[in-house]
Amino acid sequence: MSLSLSVVLRPTGPVQPVDRRVLGLAATGVGGFGLAAVYQLSGGRIGIPCLLHATTGLNCPLCGSTRMAAALLQGDLNAAWHYNPVVLVLGPLIGVAVGYQLLAWSLESLRLIRLPRLRMSPRAVDWTVKGLIALLLVYGVARNLI
After folding, report:
1. Among 10, 39, 47, 70, which residue's Cβ finds the most Cβ atoms within 10 Å?
2. CA-CA distance, 118 to 99, in Å (whole number)?
């Protein structure tokens, strides 16, 4: 992982585009909170059921994420923790990183300021993804044993 430490006022030249993965994570986050808002406004009648839970009765690692986000929209951190603590911790961390990347790109596109951008090597991305998948799998098994 590297971070360029130079800040440039009124940058010129080409603007490096935002990575597709960052855009995908941003769309997932916005869509998730949009779904949580619909779930909240409908009184829990409109949501996306988990296929694993519907067919087996087991909770997947993401089960409860919509209810967690809806609880966050109400400001109920305790309920959010109860629904899905792993996503509650990982979501804001990923959200801050994605938000910063989008902010840095936006400010540079507007030619206001060039902020340092986080860059990860392909190997670091690979290990991070594998680590997150392993964490979610362990959590998915553990939550069904408890």
Report:
1. 70
2. 12
**Closest by Cα among 99, 96, 65, 97 to 82:** 65
Can you read off the two tokens belonging to residue 41?
């406004």
Residue 62 lies in domain: 18-145
Asked, for residue 12, whether it belongs to a domain, the answer is no
State both tokens at 33.
């909170």
16-33 average pLDDT score: 94
Residue 37: CB partners within 8 Å, gap ≥ 6? Answer: 70, 73
How much is the pTM? 0.83
Task: Please check whether residue 13 lies inside any domain of the structure.
Answer: no
Quick one: tokens of 34? 């949009």
Q: What angle do CA 56, 60, 63 make, to 5 degrees?
A: 110
Could you tell me if 15 and 113 are in contact, meaning their C-beta atoms sit under 8 angstroms apart? Answer: no
* Cα R_g (the chain), whole angstroms: 18
Domains in the chain, number: 1
SS3 (DSSP) at 118 = strand
Q: Is the residue at 11 inside a domain?
A: no
Looking at the domain assignment, is residue 45 inside a domain?
Answer: yes
What is the tens place of the pLDDT at every residue in 74-101?
999 999 999 999 999 999 999 999 999 9
